[in-house]
Design goal:
Blueprint: H1 2-8, E1 15-19, H2 31-36, H3 48-60, H4 67-71, E2 74-80, H5 88-99, E3 108-113, E4 120-122, E5 135-136, E6 145-147, H6 152-161, E7 174-180, E8 192-198, E9 207-210, H7 219-222, H8 225-229, H9 232-238, E10 241-245, H10 281-295
Parallel strand pairs: 1-2, 2-3, 4-6, 5-6, 9-10
Antiparallel strand pairs: 7-8, 8-10
């Protein structure tokens, strides 16, 4: 979903970080492809040329951003080599895809860690004791935050935005707030989203990171573990960066509470779902959240 947003609105983002996912628009609106070619590869690897043609068609119809804006992004792609949920070769395929789009190969970093499974690696040594039990680094599973002693949040932010001031050792200076997502109409949104606001950012004038949880990582399934313990808040607190945490919900057709990367929010009424474009209902809702935040950083 993060990749879909970046391709749809590249002029609105400085960079893109993706963990454990495959190429842009891999599913092409098909659940069969999502399961058989974008997670496993039992139906073969995605055809990047086909996806390139899809992008060209979207661009001709003004459903995605201009090539020049996409070329300017910085991109960070991470995948664990022991991932049994999403085939690691798919992460490499995403990197290959972006190598063809970016203005310079040096704008992309592909990190692949051996003996790491599916999830979001965190440095267990800096996670507070009230975080609860983390998942095994290699095996994964709920809550999908992996106790790997890898600070992927810090690594990604440094790549995307340059050198960052390190997190404070004496706790966070900031507040995690809730906001009503009911103002943003889209199938699959949960009632409540989250916003981390560092001290000094209450009146605005701070950078913003949009952090999208993975499947089975929303607050409905794992409580506030994702919005509190990825490491993003600790880095954000020291670098004047607000973190927006929208939330998807579980429902029929989306039992794992995923963001819409295969078309479930559109397929009941669109023969060819435009979920991966500017017309996607979730894409529009997420951009509307960013626009609302730019107007006023306090929750409503």
């Amino acid at each position: 979903m993060a990749t879909q947003l970046a391709v749809a609105w590249p002029e609105r983002f400085a960079g893109l970080g993706v963990l454990a996912a495959g190429p842009w628009s891999c599913a092409q609106g098909s659940l069969g492809l999502a399961l058989g070619q974008c997670m496993t590869t039992r139906r073969g690897m995605p055809d990047l040329q086909t996806l390139e043609q899809r992008l060209a068609d979207y661009r001709e119809r003004e459903l995605v951003g201009e090539a020049e804006a996409l070329e300017a992004l910085r991109v960070y792609v991470w995948h664990g080599d022991a991932d049994t949920v999403v085939e690691p070769r798919l992460g490499a395929a995403l990197a290959e895809q972006f190598q063809g789009w970016l203005g310079d190969p040096s704008q992309l970093q592909l990190r692949q860690d051996a003996e790491v499974g599916h999830g979001w690696p965190v440095d267990a040594a800096v996670i507070p004791s009230d975080a609860g039990e983390l998942a095994d680094c290699r095996e994964g599973g709920a809550p999908h935050l992996l106790a790997c002693d890898l600070d992927i949040a810090g690594d990604a932010l440094a790549w995307l935005h340059g050198e960052q001031a390190p997190p404070a050792s004496d706790g966070l200076d900031g507040e995690l707030l809730r906001f009503d997502q009911g103002d943003f109409e889209a199938k699959g949104l949960a009632d409540t989203g989250y916003l981390f606001v560092p001290e000094g950012c209450e009146a605005g004038d701070c950078a913003v990171s949009l952090a999208l949880h993975g499947c089975s990582m929303g607050a409905e399934q794992i409580g506030e573990t994702f919005v509190r313990h990825t490491g993003l808040n600790a880095w954000a607190a020291e670098n004047r960066r607000i973190v927006l945490y929208p939330q998807a919900e579980t429902r029929l057709g989306n039992p794992q509470g995923c963001w819409d990367w295969w078309g479930y929010a559109e397929s009941t009424w669109q023969l060819d779902p435009l979920h991966d474009s500017r017309q996607g209902s979730q894409t529009r809702a997420l951009m509307a959240m960013l626009e609302r935040l730019q107007e006023d950083p306090s929750p409503r």
